[in-house]
């Protein structure tokens, strides 16, 4: 199956009291977020809410109406992770309905931190991080909003942990903590229907962005966490997958195994590239050598920054595995392959 444009999307009754509602992401190649509504006697619970934009809000409101749901009746919103195409409209839904917002405690803490930091400070953080990675001046944003980021999402009312049951009367919706894409990313197992809402963790045709922020952190390993999370999701079996983008698919375990294989191959290629270089490389130099969906020279600065975050995550995993060393010094960290 290939990805269809947003214009081709319609709300769908997926059975078992579950609807999918496509919500557009204006100006983004992903096109749309699939928001899910799960029926319950106390009112529907949404899985994610979509991008905070008037067009997105109209699509969510009207899509729910197609399913016979008044947005004012929504009981709660479970956010799979804090990114704006998932959490952006959660605050608006809460304003309209009085619904609670729930997310994993790790992402809830990030949202609280983001809401407490002025936009100019966030912009300065971004510029400093890019400089330390080795980015040239032409790839640095020129202002706090130069990277196109939205304001932080609404804070959570409820904080979730792995294994929790979501407040969904008459149903069993269990939290499965799947860190990697974000520290608090969760999948949600609808146990009474053998389905898994996968958020961005397992997608049918693409792989999620796995980055490390700041790029030069040495106390976390998001790619390692992601690979472990894929293994855990695979152990749930051949559940039907309800992802946040693209399309639904029947076997989450098989797709999780494919994504694990993809990243292991990427790690092998990166290590081989580093082993060929006598001199250590910055994060930016490493990212420029890696394979992306288009040549490095054609990537705009924002996408180069995302690529650098992903390169940093792969470098960190190789460092954790003991095949790469970090060479701090000056204002830029460098990495070098260890002799085998």
User: Can you say what the CATH homologous superfamily is?
Assistant: Ribonuclease Z/Hydroxyacylglutathione hydrolase-like
Ends: how far apart?
Answer: 42 Å
Structural class assignment: alpha/beta
Order of helices and strands: EEEEHEHHEHHEEEEHEHEHHEE
How many domains make up the 3D coordinates? 1
The largest β sheet comes out as: 7 strands, mixed
Instruction: Indicate the low-confidence ranges by residue numbers.
Output: none
Secondary structure layout plus pairing:
Blueprint: E1 12-15, E2 18-24, E3 32-38, E4 45-47, H1 54-66, E5 76-78, H2 84-87, H3 90-97, E6 100-104, H4 105-115, H5 119-133, E7 158-160, E8 173-177, E9 186-190, E10 195-199, H6 222-234, E11 240-243, H7 252-275, E12 281-282, H8 283-289, H9 301-320, E13 324-327, E14 334-337
Parallel strand pairs: 4-5, 5-6, 6-7, 10-11
Antiparallel strand pairs: 1-2, 2-3, 3-4, 8-9, 9-10, 12-14, 13-14
Helix pairs in contact: 6-7, 7-9, 8-9
Domain Metallo-beta-lactamase: 32-245
Protein name: MBL fold metallo-hydrolase
Region (Disordered): 133-163
């Amino acid at each position: 199956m290939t990805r269809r444009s947003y214009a081709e999307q319609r709300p769908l009754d997926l059975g078992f009291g579950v609807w999918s509602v496509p919500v557009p992401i204006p100006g983004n190649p992903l096109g749309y977020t699939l928001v899910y509504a799960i029926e319950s006697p106390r009112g529907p619970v949404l899985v994610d809410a979509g991008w905070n934009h008037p067009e997105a809000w109209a699509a969510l409101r009207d899509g729910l109406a197609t399913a016979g749901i008044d947005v004012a009746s929504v009981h709660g919103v479970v956010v799979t992770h804090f990114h704006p195409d998932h959490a952006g409209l959660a605050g608006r839904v809460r304003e309209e309905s009085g619904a609670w917002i729930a997310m994993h405690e790790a992402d809830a803490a990030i949202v609280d931190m983001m809401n407490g930091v002025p936009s100019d400070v966030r912009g300065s953080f971004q510029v400093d991080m890019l400089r330390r990675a080795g980015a040239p001046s032409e790839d640095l944003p020129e202002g706090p909003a130069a990277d196109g980021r939205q304001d932080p999402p609404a804070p959570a009312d409820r904080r979730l942990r792995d294994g929790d049951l979501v407040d969904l009367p008459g149903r069993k919706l269990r939290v499965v903590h799947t860190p990697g894409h974000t520290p608090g990313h969760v999948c949600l197992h609808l146990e009474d229907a053998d389905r898994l809402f996968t958020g961005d963790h397992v997608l049918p045709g693409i792989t999620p962005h796995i980055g490390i922020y700041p790029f030069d952190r040495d106390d976390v390993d998001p790619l390692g966490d992601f690979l472990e999370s894929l293994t855990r999701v695979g152990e749930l079996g051949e559940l039907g997958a309800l992802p946040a983008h693209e399309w639904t698919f029947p076997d989450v375990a098989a797709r999780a195994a494919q994504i694990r294989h993809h990243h292991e191959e990427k790690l092998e290629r990166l290590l081989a590239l580093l082993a060929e270089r006598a001199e250590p490389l910055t994060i930016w130099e490493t990212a420029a050598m890696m394979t992306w969906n288009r040549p490095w020279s054609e990537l705009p600065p924002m996408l180069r920054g995302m690529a650098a975050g992903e390169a940093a995550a792969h470098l960190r995993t190789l460092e954790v595995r003991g095949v790469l060393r970090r060479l701090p010094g000056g204002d830029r960290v460098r990495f070098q392959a260890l002799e085998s």
